[in-house]
Amino acid sequence: MSTNHCDQQLLDRVLSDQSEHPDSADVIAHLSHCTACQERLDLLAADSSWWECTREYLSEETEATLAGPSPPHTLILPVLAESTPPPPLAIDEYLDPPSHPEMLGRVGKYDVEREIGRGGMSIVLRGFDSELNRPVAIKLLAPHLASSGIARQRFIREARAAAAVVHDHVITIHGIETESKLPAIVMPLIAGPSLHGHVERHGTVDPIDIARIGIQIAAGLSAAHAQGLVHRDIKPANILLENGLSRVQITDFGLARAAHDANLTQTSVITGTPHFMSPEQAEGDTIDHRSDLFSLGSVLYFMATGQLPFTGTTTMGVLRKVYKATPTRIRELNPLIPQRLESVIDKLMEKSPDDRFETASELRQYLSDYLAHLQQPTARKPPRRLLTSAIRDRRRKWVLGSLAIVIGLLAVLFASRTGTQPKSAVERPTARPVIPDIDASLPTFAELGVVSSQSIDQELAQVTTEVNALEQRPPLPETPSNFPQEVSQLAAALSALEESRIAETDSTFYIEVQSINAALQQLEQTIPQPSPGF
Asked: Where are the alpha helices (DSSP H) in 376-419?
């Protein structure tokens, strides 16, 4: 350690908890009074947006904490409230006396039978509505948050947000109890497990059921988004199952808020469950309804593979992977998942919101068309193919490969016609050569406009037929010796281009087909014509 400040190695040792080092006592003593080293240690541990996140969630009085900076010498571990369960407690201490000796207690007018679950912000009880003679689920605000006015407001807002969404796949809110010891939300009691519990118990989900569940979640989200609400915490545990996998309901709008409302949840504050967050959530950026679509994609990934898309030993590690890493391809983990369904999930999990589906309604329609095809493959055509970043990258490689073959073929053709030898690989220029009378003859995008599917099919069929005819043509005496090899290269380029086809009305694909067609015409010109009487 230097005489003035800690060096980088010593600060790294503090973060890695190497307390057995001989200098540890001196380092700790120095950090207790050196503000500069305290600030450097904070920046090494996490960036400023993460500290803003931890200040909100590790403080009972959020507003007071955000008003002033946290002490620089306090090292706060990167843990979200969701991953920190409340301490064990006797829940009956927070209930009113029971009306029946067999009951645990009461919340307002509802009898409480037992506790059925708890999370970072709430405790869920099984209750009974004696007036309407029906079981209910009662969600209490966790006692360790009940003293926070901000937490109470957020909890009540959950009920109001969910109650504003009237939809078959969004759980109904029966009422709110604000006069009890702990504020409570009363909802229907769903007898089935959560989607998370189902996958843990039974493993991966069949593609048809994945599509069906995706349709229902997308429909519920579409209704919420129409009200200006973003759920912000779509995950398998918040998807409840009724009647097996035939019907689902979205629950827990505890993190939902109007997209324009920044009164309670501020920018650069992370809310949600790390494994199913969107990249923009992980960064603490402003989010919109497309964040829910990314989370839904992560849920579908979980159903298809039985694995979390992003994992890590710490919350921060998970968030970094959400923001930067690409999950393992679904078909590598489960080859039974159709490629079309994999592309749907890939598109939902695009890092940029602009590359995802535009709306939940668009996703619902696409999955509905796809489900109809899965159920009646001969009667219903599959929906259009989706252009995802993964497919776009593969397509770029295919197209570049086909263009390289075409360019090499044309170079040989020009060399054979002019009597010159092609340049060696070392001398070949890196830029694409200008090919006379070919590029200039191709239509521009402005001239093409939107190319019809029929035009693409006709052009592709014509080129394929001509290439096949060249492959079957018997050689003539004056045919160049390398002609069969050149035809094979052209056929390979055409095959690679066919595999890269993504959209039925893709103008770029159409131009590339015409480029190969132009090379085909050049090749045909080198074929000697038979003499009369041959």
From this structure: 389-418
CATH number for the region 91-188 comes to 3.30.200.20
DSSP state of 475: P
Distances from the Cα of 472 to the Cαs of 41, 179, 475, 487, 522, in angstroms? 73, 87, 9, 10, 18
Joined together, the tokens standing for residue 11 give 């600060």
Q: What residues contact residue 485 under an 8 Å CB cut-off, 6+ apart?
A: none
Kindly give the parts of the chain with pLDDT less than 50: 1-3, 17-19, 56-86, 258-269, 424-450, 502-505, 534
Q: Is the domain 195-375 a CATH 1.10.510.10 member?
A: yes
CA distance 402 to 492: 8
In angstroms, rounded to a whole number, what is the distance separating the alpha carbons of residues 411 and 438?
Answer: 13
3-state secondary structure of 186: strand
Question: Would you give the DSSP letter of residue 164?
Answer: T
Residues 125 and 135: beta-carbon distance below 8 Å? no
Euclidean distance between CA atoms 355 and 445, whole angstroms:
22
pTM higher than 0.70, yes or no? no
Distance CA(255)–CA(135), nearest Å, equals: 26
| DSSP per residue, 124-141 | EEEEEETTTTEEEEEEEE
For residue 495, with 0-12 CB atoms within 10 Å meaning exposed, 13-18 middle and 19 or more buried, which class applies? middle
Give the tokens for residue 119: 């999370």
Domain pair 91-188 / 195-375, same fold:
no
Among the options 233, 292, 346, 506, which is catalytic? 233
3-class DSSP assignment, residue 454: helix
Closest CA to 236 of 189, 281, 285, 200: 200
Q: What is the dihedral of CA 231, 232, 236, 242, to 10 degrees?
A: -10
Phi, psi of 519 (to 5 degrees): -65, -35
- Identify the bridge partners of residue 428 per DSSP, sorted by sequence position: none
Between the alpha carbon of residue 367 and those of residues 170, 184, 241, 335, the distances in Å are 19, 36, 19, 20
Locate tokens 């504020």: which residue? 183
Task: Give CA–CA dist 105/111, Å, rounded.
Answer: 6
Name the nearest CA neighbour of 187 among 142, 125, 96, 230. Answer: 125
Given the DSSP bridges, would you call strands 122-129 and 110-118 parallel, antiparallel or unpaired?
Answer: antiparallel
Query: Would you call 233 a catalytic residue per the annotation?
Result: yes
Domain edges within the chain: 8-78, 91-188, 195-375, 389-525
Query: What is the per-residue pLDDT across 352-408, written as a single tens digit (0 to 9) for each?
Result: 999 999 999 999 999 999 999 999 988 998 898 887 777 666 666 666 666 677 677
Q: What tokens does 82 get?
A: 């969701």
pLDDT of 82 reads 39
Can you tell me the distance from the alpha carbon of 305 to that of 334, in angstroms, rounded to the nearest whole number? 6
Find the helix packing angle between 360-375 and 207-226, rounded to 10°: 160
The pairs formed by 31-35 with CB atoms below 8 angstroms and a separation of 24 or more are 31/6, 31/73, 32/73, 34/5, 34/6, 35/72
pLDDT of amino acid 125 = 92
